[in-house]
Design goal:
The protein is α+β, with helices and mostly antiparallel strands. Strands 1-2-3 form a three-stranded mixed β-sheet, sandwiched between helices. The mean pLDDT is about 85.
């Protein structure tokens, strides 16, 4: 957790790098699918990217309902997000964390 805390504190986490590389800000993203490895991970990501509670609501709901389901968790979050109306062309970002220092992020555009 120390490494994640350091990365997030520096605002250089994988989510911020993805936004920077695509010329986007947090405000340009319609919705987020953040892997809920645990509540502390969600807290740290939310702090680093200045999220409000709504940005992590679906990730927290999946964590509460199913726990950390490893690699299946992001698809579970995306499934719940698909049930909501999202404007065509809106940005959606998924961020996943794995063992050690593994992290990945992906930018989608709704269609």
């Amino acid at each position: 957790m120390l490494c994640l805390r350091h990365l997030c504190a520096q605002r250089s986490g994988v989510g911020q790098l993805l936004l920077d590389r695509n010329g986007l800000t947090v405000g340009d993203v319609a919705t987020w699918a953040v892997h809920p490895g645990g509540p502390r991970i969600l807290d740290r990501v939310g702090q680093a990217l200045d999220f409000d509670a709504r940005d992590l609501a679906t990730s927290r709901a999946v964590l509460a309902d199913h726990g950390n389901c490893s690699s299946a968790t992001i698809p579970m979050i995306l499934e719940q997000l698909r049930a909501r109306p999202i404007v065509s062309g809106a940005n959606v970002v998924a961020i996943g964390f794995g063992p050690g220092l593994t992290a990945a992020a992906m930018l989608f555009r709704s269609g």
